[in-house]
Every structure is written in C-alpha cells, then in structure tokens.
Specification:
mainly beta, Neuraminidase, Immunoglobulin-like, five-stranded mixed beta sheet, five-stranded antiparallel beta sheet, 2 helices, 44 strands, 45% strand
Length: 627
C-alpha cells in the first residue's frame, strides 16, 4: 500500500533533518503594523485565499460558503496600495451555480486584464474554469472552460505571461492514460485560447498532481508537481512508494525546453510544491516532506535554481521549529529576497500557527518568525505575496468564532515608509456639495485622515467619507487624502480625484438646468417636468438624472427591484460594466433625506445586488450612478 497522498488544509507536512541554510547579514524585513482583517469580516467561511498584486493594485480571491446560498462560491475583492482593500466591495466571480466552485487562483495580466481560475461542478465531475476582468474592472463575459471534456480536472494554478496572456495548469484524472496527469493551456488576456491543451508530465504511470506554475524573468515558465511511484513502487518488501517533486521548463508559447527533472532529493514523502521566479533569472521551490517511516513531523524544504536550470542551493530545511508538523508552504520573491510561509502545529492541532522565514537567494535572513498574533483558533492556508517594491504580506484564513473563518494579513517591510493611498471616489450630492469616499487603512495604529480640497492644506477627518458644502454650482473640485499614525508618521498624499457639483436650477423644477439643456435644448419653456417620463420607460426624468441614464432613450434605464431574501431584503439593479454606483437610503418619506449606504460599488458585470438586513425594511432605497 502506498502512503503517498495529497495534503489538504488540515493535513500534515515533512522534514529534511539537520540541513539548514546559512544565515547572512542583511537588512531584515520587519512587521509593518499589526495583523488585520484584510477584506473585513463576512458571514460564513472565507478559506483557500490566493492573491496577485503589483504594488498599487491587486486582487484577493477565496472560497466562500455563504455568498450565493448554493454551496461554495469564488469571491474576490480588489486591493489598493499597501495591501489594503479597495473601497469597492467584494464580488462573486463565478456565474455557474452547478455544484461547488473551489480552489480559486488569480493573476494580474499585462494590459490591465485579470484572470481568475478555479475548479467547479459536481463532485467527481469538476472542470477547470476561468473568467477575465478588463482594465476597467468589468468582466469580459461569463466563465470559460479551460480543461478537457469528459474527465475530472482540479487544482489549477495560473501565471501571467510577458505578452499579456496567461498560462493555466491543472491535474486531470485519466488524461495521460493512467490516473492523474498534469496539463497546461495558454489563454489570451480576454479569455481566448491561444493553444491546445498540452501534457506536462512525461512519466505517466500512477498520479501526477498538485501542479504549480511560475513565469521567469525571461518569459519562460516552470511547472512543478507531485509524482507518485516514479522512482519506486510499493512492494511486499517495501510497502512505501516514492512521492517526489518534479518540474519542467517551458518557453512562453508552452513548448517544453527539455525533460522533466526531479527537485526533491531524499527518499521521503513530498507534498504541496510551490515556486516563484527569482530576480537573477532563476527560480525557487518550497514543499513539505517527511520520512517514509515516520520519526518526526512534516517539514518545509526549499531549493534554488539558476537561470540555466542547475541547482544553486539546497534542498535545505526552511523551518527551525520542528515540534509538530510544518505544512502548506507558500513562497514569493521581493528583489533578491524570498519569503516562505507555512502552517505549524507546534502548539497543538487545534491552535495551528502561521510561520515565515526570509531568504536571500538561499541564505537565511534573520530568524523564523511567527506571523499571527490572534491565537484562539486555527490558522490555515497561508499565502505570501510581494508588492514588488518594499513589502511582503502573508494572508491566511483564521477562525474567529461565531463568524467562522475570516481572512487576516500581516505586512512586512524593508523601508518602513508608508504607502500612498488610492485617490478617493468623488460624487455630487447637490448644487453646492460633493462627497469624497475612500478605503479605510487597516493594520496600523491610525490617528486619522486628512483631506485636501483644491490643493489647500488638509483638514482632519476621522471617518472615511467627507461632505464638502458651500461650493458653487457647476464647478469642478479636486480632492486628495492621506492618513496619519499615532506616532506622528504621515503617508504621502494620494493622487487627486475630481467631481463636479450640479448645475444651477434657476427654474426651481428640481433638475439642473445644464443637464436639461443637454437633452432638450436651450429653451427652458420646452423642458419637461422632473416628474414626467419623457421616453416612456417607466422612470421619471428625475430618476433618470440620479441614475445617470438618458431620459430620451427608453433603452437607457436603471431598473431596481427590492425582494425578500431570508431574514432581510435583496436590492437588485442593472448596471453598465465599469461604472460606479452608490446605494442610498432615506429613513423618511417627507422630507426625503438620502444618505449613502455602504461604499461606492464598481460594476463588474451587467447587474449588482445588495443584501439589506431586516432592520432596514422600513426605509426607502435608491441607486445613483456617481462615475
């Protein structure tokens, strides 16, 4: 019987006894702020995170068992600078509700496109799917199937190619003629397949599974996977089969550049490979392994390869804590540094912890560090990401009690400088007022914010929204924001964002005169009333103004529907992808006093919705377009 198996979120990982990387004297990364809920706290479980980030923009994606009420879904939220959540809310990626949608991955592509990949469908019949965002943040369409028909496919991994395309790898049961094999496909930035499905592994007996992919500095890419019984099979005399890490290098089109090669070197059971490109043109692997005859727990091991494909360092033992099991590693690069994170059961199986170790091209930098400070429950599935500038961030799923698993993060920085916040969203409220809204900064001892209007000195603001009154009608104004820490440190000013107040309403009909003139000409005597429905689409001219639609085109309408949904209400509306909307609420009927409900919402498809708690049933709601 073989003991070669796949490790999952609560399974164990293993060890290379006594071989440690040498330490080097170098500028260490230090914790940057404190542990924080990177996307906030949601109902249900948020698990199996994946992140892609470029320093100013990124996406965090995860499995979510609450969002659609149909099982497990893929949910994502955009990230802004400094590994902070963007002001726009989380959104569901998958459109299919057939079975569960699991193990999501994400990659930022050239040209501003984004790919999400995952396995979806009914149990034992899952396929690998992908869906793509355009540079405006809207989806190109529904998900597309990437993997083969007729066989189960799972465990996808994605990476961005230099030409703006993506490479997707996965394992498929029976695809190579015997149990699981590893396959790849290249796809364009909008989801158009660029090549046929190609087999990665050359050895096809037994299982080849759990693939990972990384693109190198010169455009080549490397695929790593677990191969069972390639060196030795289980026999009566030796009841343990080999279970090793293998890899293969490909050019940017997906053509192989040589044969597969073994990465792990000892006769041990290996699992969960992960890899990253390095700044010198090479690549680095990390994985877990343990002895065939179990004498200790699982350990994390790493190896570095040069650009020519020869081993430069290792394999070496990553973890210095050896009590319990060290499992589920993740690796990322920042310049010539690499950070490896993993889960440790050193404190018991019910109180697992996140650890990390930094290397400089194979040499240990500083000591192993415990990442999480929240300790009451389990910590699971860490992923480490780089901003490519000065920071790493480790993101993981943590048990927080009644709300189940949330996603937490911890930043690490080389420079200690604060990140520039994103520009605020600016929307018009009236003839004399504009409102600026921005994402909260979490994970720092925050003293507050400052908001600057039209280049003037900033004014202190304690919340993440501010209404500027007393402005002139039909005037444009610029806003910038920055944040202040309790120790006196101040972030750079954000880039500016502008907004325009409504035009004058000299005829007192409730609509800006310049808006009416744009649709009905300069003769105000010919302007229809605010309550009229000029295009017969069921929406008054006043509603069309607030919705940002064309009052002379019946096809241009923002339709809203409010329905019962469990304990609350579901507000749904149609959108124009790429535009920004704001939900507003009024507690009164007379007079109507509209206030923003939540943050601005970037439309990523042709519709959006918001769940309103039961305590909000007595209010009035509307949706306005602000950009």
């Amino acid at each position: 019987m073989s003991v070669c198996f796949t490790l999952r979120c609560l399974a164990m990982s293993a060890g290379l006894a006594g071989v440690l990387a040498p330490a080097v004297s170098a500028q260490s990364l230090t914790p940057d702020g404190t542990e924080y809920p990177i996307v906030g706290s949601y109902l249900g479980d948020q698990v199996f995170p994946s992140v892609s980030y470029n320093g100013s923009k990124g996406f965090l994606v995860w499995e979510d068992n609450h969002v659609d009420g149909h099982g497990i879904s893929v949910v994502s939220r955009q990230l802004s600078s400094g590994f902070s959540a963007d002001v726009s809310p989380a959104f569901r990626v998958n459109t299919s509700l057939d079975g569960n949608q699991e193990r999501p991955r994400v990659a930022l592509l050239g040209g501003g496109n984004v790919i999400f990949a995952w396995q979806g469908g009914k149990l034992s019949k899952q396929k690998v799917y992908a869906r793509f965002l355009n540079p405006k943040g809207a989806f190109y369409g529904s998900e597309v199937q990437i993997s083969q028909d007729g066989i189960e496919s799972r465990d996808s991994s994605v990476a961005a190619l230099a030409n703006g395309a993506a490479v997707v790898v996965w394992s498929a049961l029976g695809g190579d003629g015997d149990l699981s094999g590893v396959f790849l496909r290249t796809v364009g930035g909008s989801g158009t397949p660029m090549g046929e499905i190609a087999q990665v592994n050359q050895f096809t007996s037994h299982n080849q599974r759990n693939p990972e992919v990384a693109v190198l500095q010169d455009g080549r890419f490397v695929v790593a996977w677990i191969s069972e019984q390639q060196r030795s099979v289980a026999t009566a005399d030796r009841p343990f089969a080999s279970c090793d890490v293998y890899a293969r290098v490909f050019d940017s089109t997906g053509a192989p550049l040589g044969n597969e090669f073994r990465v792990s070197t000892e006769d041990r059971i290996c699992a969960n490979p992960t890899l990253t490109a390095t700044a010198n043109g090479g690549f680095a692997f990390a994985w877990t392994q343990r002895a065939v005859v179990r004498s200790n727990g699982w350990d994390v091991v790493a190896a570095w390869y040069g650009s020519g494909g020869a081993t430069a360092v290792g394999p070496i033992l990553v973890n210095t804590t050896t009590a319990g099991d060290q499992m589920l590693p993740s690796i990322a690069a920042l310049g010539d540094r690499q950070m490896v994170s993993w889960i440790s059961s050193a404190f018991g199986s019910t109180r697992s912890a996140v650890f990390a170790q930094v290397f400089r091209d194979g040499a240990r930098v500083g000591a192993e560090t415990r990442v999480n400070t929240w300790t009451p429950g389990k910590q699971n599935q860490p992923v480490v990401a780089s901003d490519t500038l000065t920071r790493f961030a480790v993101i993981w799923s943590t048990f927080v009690g009644a709300r189940s698993y949330d996603l937490h993060a911890q930043r690490y920085s080389i420079s200690g400088t604060l990140s520039q916040p994103d520009a605020p969203y600016v929307g018009s409220l009236s003839q004399d007022s504009l409102q600026a809204t921005w994402a909260p900064v979490l994970g720092y001892p925050l003293a507050g914010y400052e908001l600057s209007l039209d280049g003037k000195p900033g004014v202190p603001v304690s919340l993440t929204a501010y209404t500027q009154k007393g402005l002139q009608p039909a005037t444009v104004h610029e806003f910038r924001v920055r944040y202040l820490l309790q120790n006196g440190d101040v972030s750079p000013w954000s880039k500016s964002a502008s907004g325009r107040t409504w035009g004058e309403d000299n005829n007192f009909d409730g609509l800006p005169d310049d808006w009416q003139e744009a649709f009905w000409g300069p003769d105000s005597s010919q302007w229809p009333s605010a309550s009229a429905d000029s295009d017969g689409d069921g929406a008054s001219n006043a509603r069309e103004f607030f919705a940002g639609t064309d009052p002379t085109d019946a096809k241009s309408i923002l339709r809203q529907k409010l329905s019962h949904s469990g304990p609350g209400l579901q507000l749904e509306w149609n959108t124009i992808p790429g535009l920004v909307y704001q939900v507003q609420r009024s507690e009164n009927v007379v007079p109507l006093v509209w206030v923003n409900l939540g943050d601005p919402r970037l439309a990523r498809s042709s519709s959006d919705s918001l769940l309103i708690p039961k305590e909000g049933r007595g209010a009035l709601y509307r949706v306005v377009r602000i950009r």
